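Q: BrxA family protein, please. Structure only.
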Amino acid sequence: MANLQLNSPYKGSASLTREQFLFYEMRTTAKLIEEGVNNTEIMEKVFNENLFHYPTEKTIKKVFVRHV
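A: Structure for BrxA family protein:
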């Protein structure tokens, strides 16, 4: 297996595969932006109404804050 990695023409990192694609979250946020909601109000809605349907506030903060 190590031989395959050494001979690979790909020299990038796996950071894209490490992260979630966040499709649902991007779609929800884009809809709010399209409706004219400002960034502060979007953040409040995400946290207060759990728009992303995450199980805990810690999860919301971990994902949302990192990507904003």
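A: Brief note, in case it's useful. The mean pLDDT is 78.
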